[in-house]
From TrEMBL:
GO terms for molecular function: metal ion binding; symporter activity. The gene is LOC115008262. It comes from Cottoperca gobio (Frogmouth). This is Transporter. GO terms for cellular component: plasma membrane; synaptic vesicle. Na(+) binds at residues 74, 77, 81, 339, 468, 472. Keywords: Glycoprotein, Membrane, Metal-binding, Sodium, Symport, Transmembrane, Transmembrane helix, Transport. PROSITE patterns: NA_NEUROTRAN_SYMP_1, NA_NEUROTRAN_SYMP_2, NA_NEUROTRAN_SYMP_3. Its main location: membrane. Pfam families: SNF.
């Protein structure tokens, strides 16, 4: 140590030695906060090495703010925005559904999204490291989050595989799902019966794409076409994430922006189609009475919850690569509203196209029923007097048919049912609810067959689905790889490749002929309840265990301003209450709804609800239990000291920041942190709320701020330290009340 250093000067003087915190920190080797001991001092004149903290802790960082925003947008905006949100709008009151959705977005969506962004940015760790840091007893939150990511990633990439298959099939004219195939038996040519009973697009989906079985119990073997598509999907995902954000960040420039180009193209094209306005008007016509139904609010809360990707770990992982002073509040609001606007845009596109399809199907219905009426007229079943004189069967309009239908129904009241006439109402066609794969691979696909240059639009649509899915898969994979790479020193590229290979082989479950039913099972049970529990524990660990006031102070230190006080009450009371109600409603819904799936019955050429067999039912509940099992296991293991709390995995940047701040303290006012005057005296604890200087200027010292010294009991005021004092083990400090 240099002779002119403060410590050396005091050792050579006769005055009482009063070491400063900065001097003590210079002697500390911050290797393991849990298992190491703090030793200060030694023989006089003995040179003690100082800690050399690197300027960069080695953690990757985003190349630009735009790249980061696009990554968050790409993760949160996914397939659900295109095929789930429009269905919920249609089902739950049209424009009236937007009211509860927007309210819940403000009450639970933005606050919880902001919370995840903030903790990831502050701790600079993935989901496991973040929750080990904030509350080690609830460290299982990060593991459960990782497991849910694994379950979702397995079946989500199967959907990307389906999209890849349709994308490849779109490069031909006419589209292969535009007409039913012809079966030839010698000189006799007949339409495929299964296709004739359903439709060309439905037949192509269930028979030529999935080749699905009639029950989940009947495996049917691997579907070779889907297996190859799944392999291609995993190769694409692996290449996108193999180098972490260095590779995925560049992919996001395209995968996040291209879907918006396609949506705007489809919107412009859709508005030019006949009947598109009918679809949009039907969509946004509010049914206000629906707003009073609790189920509408529950489904709106669930959609808000999953639309932003809360609890998956991807949000935390992406934000952990940010600078510590990044304005994550702005990011939370921006991404949330982009997500909401995207859902509205997708809904406009979907209903513009479905309005066009409804008009085509309605006109087809009118033609078919007009032929029936002509047959009845020719066979004298109906009198020509029943037909209004202005009706022209060669140019029959929907209004003319409606008038004729009403007259016949009134006159033939007793025998009307035997005629088998349909009302052919446009409203009925628009009310046919479709979602998920039924919307993307059947309804929307059928509508595109009527577009001019239909292959071009089909290529664009399925390429958009691939990019939407890829953006979400990148976030999901980052939610898996980042926590593991933070916790264990493994080779990034090798670990990523191994993950993709294992996931591909596990994903073979979903590319059997019965694989579609397992996709439904995993979608219903692997994420819903476990993820809701994960998020409420995240909320409670920050708001009630760590403390909302402390968290608000940390945010002020990070952002340079204090967030609006409304967040205090949202995090502490409103969001937990809403999540508890959501969990209760989800459990009740699961209890009263019979677990099952929609099976495609080949003989009937229609879907039929089937209950899960006992083994499949066991598998459903096993998915929930396995996803939530880390929560109690980690809690019990750390309660009885059977597991390390992960404190030895703290970020180097924290130790760097801590040393810089306390060095500034010494330079400004060394007397504020003076230890006991006598070696035998224990130094008094620094009171909370004490003023101190940090790199950003004068601040209030909060003894419970989000720092390693508090969360892990390594505060230097908690140990009696002197050159002659023996080593004192470090113990955990109990978090103070928020009151």
């Amino acid at each position: 140590m240099p002779k002119n250093s403060k410590v050396t000067q005091r050792e050579q003087s006769n005055e009482h030695v009063t070491e400063s915190v900065a001097d003590l920190l210079a002697h500390e080797e911050p290797l393991d906060y849990k298992n190491s001991s703090l030793t200060v001092g030694g023989a006089a004149g003995k040179k003690i090495p100082q800690i050399e903290v690197p300027e960069n802790d080695g953690r990757p960082a985003w190349n630009s703010k735009l790249q980061y925003i696009l990554a968050q947008v790409g993760f949160s905006v996914g397939l659900g925005n295109v095929w789930r949100f429009p269905y919920l709008c249609q089902k739950n009151g049209g424009g009236a559904y937007l009211v509860p959705y927007f309210i819940l977005l403000l009450l639970i969506g933005i606050p919880l999204f902001f919370l995840e962004l903030a903790v990831g940015q502050k701790v600079r760790r993935g989901s496991i490291g973040v929750w080990n840091y904030i509350c080690p007893s609830l460290g299982g939150i990060g593991v459960s989050s990782l497991m849910v990511c694994g379950f979702v990633g397995l079946y989500y990439n199967v959907i990307i595989g389906w999209s890849i298959f349709y994308f490849v099939q779109s490069f031909q004219y006419p589209l292969p799902w535009s007409e039913c195939p012809i079966r030839r038996n010698g000189t006799l040519a007949i339409v495929e019966p299964e296709c004739e009973k359903s439709s060309a697009t439905t037949y192509f989906w269930y028979r030529q794409t999935l080749n699905t079985t009639s029950t989940i119990a009947e495996s049917g073997g691997l579907n070779v076409k889907m297996t190859v598509s799944l392999l291609v999907a995993w190769i694409i995902v692996c290449l996108a994430v193999i180098r972490g954000i260095a590779s995925s960040g560049k992919v996001m420039y395209f995968s996040s922006l291209f879907p918006y180009v396609v949506l705007f193209c489809f919107l412009v094209r859709g508005l030019m189609l006949k009947g598109s306005v009918d679809g949009i008007a039907h969509m946004f016509t509010p049914k206000l009475e629906k707003m009073l139904e609790p189920k509408v609010w529950r489904e709106a809360a669930t959609q808000v919850f999953f639309a932003l990707g809360l609890g998956f770990g991807g949000v935390i992982a992406f934000s952990s690569y940010n600078k510590i002073d990044n304005n994550c509040h702005f990011d939370a609001v921006l991404v949330s509203f982009i997500n909401f606007i995207t859902s509205i845009l997708a809904t406009l596109v979907v209903f513009a196209v479905l309005g066009f399809k409804a008009n085509i199907m309605n006109e087809k219905c009118v033609v078919e029923n007009a032929e029936k009426i002509l047959g009845y007229l020719n066979s004298s079943v109906l009198s020509h007097d029943l037909i209004p004189p202005h009706v022209n069967f060669s140019h029959l309009t929907t209004s003319d048919y409606a008038e004729m239908y009403g007259v016949i129904k009134t006159v033939k009241e007793d025998g009307f049912a035997q005629l088998g006439l349909d009302p052919c109402l446009l409203e009925d066609e628009l009310n046919k609810s479709v979602q998920g794969t039924g919307l993307a691979f059947i309804a929307f696909t059928e509508a595109m067959t009527h577009f001019p240059a239909s292959p071009f639009w089909s290529v664009m649509f399925f390429f958009m689905l691939i990019n939407l899915g890829l953006g979400s898969m990148i976030g999901t994979m980052t939610g898996i790889t980042t926590p593991v790479l933070d916790t264990y020193k493994v080779h990034k590229e090798l670990f990523t490749v191994c993950c993709c290979i294992v996931a591909f082989f596990l994903g073979l479950l979903f590319v059997q002929r019965s694989g579609n039913y397992f996709v439904t099972m995993f979608d219903d049970y692997s994420a819903g309840l476990p993820l809701t529990i994960v998020v409420i524990l995240e909320n409670l660990s920050v708001a009630w265990v760590y403390g909302t006031k402390r968290f608000m102070q940390d945010l002020e230190d990070m952002l340079g301003f204090r967030p609006c006080i409304i967040y205090f009450y949202l995090w502490k009371y409103v969001s937990p209450l809403c999540l508890i109600v959501l969990i209760s409603a989800t459990v009740i819904e699961m209890a009263i709804s019979p677990p099952g799936y929609n099976a495609w019955i080949q003989e009937l050429a229609e879907e039929r609800f089937e209950s899960y067999p006992p083994w499949a039912l066991t598998m459903c509940f096993a998915l929930i239990i396995v996803a939530m099992l880390p929560l109690p296991i980690v809690y019990i293991a750390r309660r009885f000291n059977l597991m390390s709390d992960g404190s030895n995995k703290l970020s180097v940047s924290y130790r760097k920041t801590m040393m810089k701040d306390i060095s500034n303290l010494e330079e400004q006012d060394e007397s504020r942190f003076i230890l006991g005057a006598k070696p035998s005296e224990a130094p008094p604890s620094a009171p909370a709320g004490r003023p101190c200087l940090t790199a950003g200027g004068a601040k209030t010292l909060d003894a419970n701020s989000l720092s390693p010294s508090i969360c892990y009991g390594t505060s230097y005021q908690n140990a009696a330290i002197s050159p002659t004092t023996p080593t004192t083990p470090i113990t955990h400090a109990t978090p103070e009340s928020d009151s």
